Structures are given as C-alpha cells and as structure tokens.
Amino acid sequence: MILVTGGAGFIGANFVLDWLNASDEPVVNLDKLTYAGNLRTLKAQQNDPRHIFVRADICDRAALDAIFATHKPRAVLHFAAESHVDRSIHGPAEFVQTNVVGTFTLLEATRSYWNALSDDDKAAFRFLHVSTDEVFGSLSATDAQFSETTPYAPNSPYSATKAGSDHLVRAYHHTYGLPTLTTNCSNNYGPYQFPEKLIPLMIANALGGKPLPVYGDGQNVRDWLYVGDHCSAIREVLARGTSGETYNVGGWNEKKNLDVVHTLCDLLDELRPKAAGSYRDQITYVTDRPGHDRRYAIDARKLERELGWKPAETFETGLKKTVRWYLDNQEWVDEVVSGDYRKWVETNYAQRA
C-alpha cells in the first residue's frame, strides 16, 4: 500500500492512473479537492478496490494519523501543493498554508508513524517529496542548467513556499533519520492539466476563438517534461533512489514560450483547422507578470547515471499526444472551464460517503 497526497490533481492523478495500470499494489489517494482537484480524472477507478480515495487536508493532523493507522502505507508520495505562480502572487497565504504548513504536518504525522514501525519496515519505508525547478530561481541564456547542488533562489511566493517545503524534508532526514527522497521537476504538460497553465490554456482559448495571451516578449524559456515521463521517473526514484538524496527530473526540452505557442497553433491547424486563417492569428501580447523568471533548465544526468532513467517522449511527440488528448476529451475540458466538475465531485463524494 502506498499513500499519495494530491492524487486528484494533474501530476498526482496521472501518477495514480499509471501506477494502477502497471501494479496491483493499492493506493490510498488523499486529496482536499480544491479547484485543481478533479475526481472525474479518476472516474475509471471509482469502483476499483485498489484505489481508496480519502477527502482530507494535509494540514489536518488527526485525519493523517487516522489514514496511517488504518492503511499502514510502506511509502508516502507527496504531490499535494498549490502550484500556480499567478495565483500565488494574488493570494500567497494559501500557498504558505498548504505548501509549508501542510508539508510540515504531513512530515510530523509520517515521522510518528515511521517511529513505531519495526526495524525492517523502517528501513524499507520512503517519503518521496515532489518539488519543482522553480526553487532554483532564474537563469540567463548562458548559465549552466540547474543541478542538484544549485543554490536555492526562489522569486515568487509559489517557489518560495516550495523551497521551504524542500528544506523541511531535508531537515527531517538529517535530524530525525526519516528516509526521504526529493525530486525537482521541470514544467509538466500532458492530459488532465487544469486549463490555467500555458499549454491547456492555449488549446482551450484557440478552440474557443479567444486571444492567446503571451506574457511580455514571449522569450521566457522553460524545460518541458511530458507528465508520463515524470511519473516514470518518480517510480524509479521510489524503487531505487538513495535515501536522503534529491534528483532533478527534466525533459531536455528547452523552449521559448512563444515557440511553444507557435508549435501548438501549427498542430491545431493540422488536426483541427479553422475555416479561415491560422490559430497564430489569435496570439496577443500582454503585460508580463511580476518576478517572471527568464529561463529554467534542468540537468537530469544524475537520474540517468544512477538510475538509468531517460524521458521517452520528445517535446514534439509529447505535445502531439497532449493536443490529441484535449481534442478527444473536450467534455472533460468543458466541465473544468464551466465549473461543472465541482458539482459532480460534491454529488459523487456525498454518495460515496
């Protein structure tokens, strides 16, 4: 049994789906079901006895203690986090509460549970913390890529709170001996991503005939990682990573934001052409957001060297899969955009409770 926090969010849900597709080991899926948590993503698993969903907050210590006592997981995979930079600028308090206080509360509950295990079970236990490359700050065009030893220099409330959670996880390993693992990933994309992030937002706006807003000059660079590749890397780190270590997970795909939007428009022109013109005609430039980091780039050689992991998707193959998924799953997108998925969650959860 493994415990996954945030397993109804974008990366967490993809991880749960991939895990249950490849393994018979059950998953306890803990999610608060904020705006970004969508149980419709996991609809196919609602009657699967291997998938045990618990609606709870990682800040709720009593709920966490009850989950540990009931399900006795061999590992915790901690995805739960507030993750949208723009939202953190407008409302940082929620990010501090979830990302810092929530991680602290989860670590404390985990430590209490772990201390009571037998010696063999303590040695086999793992706490895997999923984090971001944004904790390292911004790179210039000529700077070396982020490595596991790059100093932290967060520039937004989001990245600052994720940095704080990383430091807490490190401290619990060095102070209490808790067997932790941390992964710092680059920008994820793929199926089931909430349409506030760049790629799904551009797809939704393009199909809806709306402007495609590009921040600033569009030259900000990100390293893009297909979510399925990220999930496979996490499974490798959980299985064979060294306790106390951190591992960078990247796609080796540095792209300027404007180039990403151009590629998306070209794919949509191919797969869902407009009656006239190109989706590129909808691109508009908007005022840049405060503290917008110029470039992120991940050096993932440690993960390849020690665990033999490499991404399976190129940016081109991953993006085409992503666009096809959104075109084929417009109902999921419409429910998210309209908010109807929240009504379904409340109805479904009440029935299940």
UniProtKB/TrEMBL annotation:
Annotated InterPro entries: dTDP_Gluc_deHydtase, NAD(P)-bd_dom, NAD(P)-bd_dom_sf
Pfam families recorded: GDP_Man_Dehyd
Residue ranges occupied by any NAD(P)-binding domain in the UniProt entry: 3-322
Entry keyword annotation includes Lyase: yes
Required cofactor names: NAD(+)
E.C. number: 4.2.1.46
Catalytic activity of the protein: dTDP-alpha-D-glucose = dTDP-4-dehydro-6-deoxy-alpha-D-glucose + H2O
CDD domains, alphabetized: dTDP_GD_SDR_e (cd05246)
GO aspect biological process, one term: nucleotide-sugar metabolic process
GO molecular function terms attached to this record: dTDP-glucose 4,6-dehydratase activity
Highest taxon in the source lineage: Bacteria
Keywords: Lyase, NAD
NAD keyword on record: yes
PANTHER family, per the entry: DTDP-D-GLUCOSE 4,6-DEHYDRATASE-RELATED
Family according to the record: Belongs to the NAD(P)-dependent epimerase/dehydratase family. dTDP-glucose dehydratase subfamily.
Protein name: dTDP-glucose 4,6-dehydratase
Protein's organism: Paraburkholderia acidicola
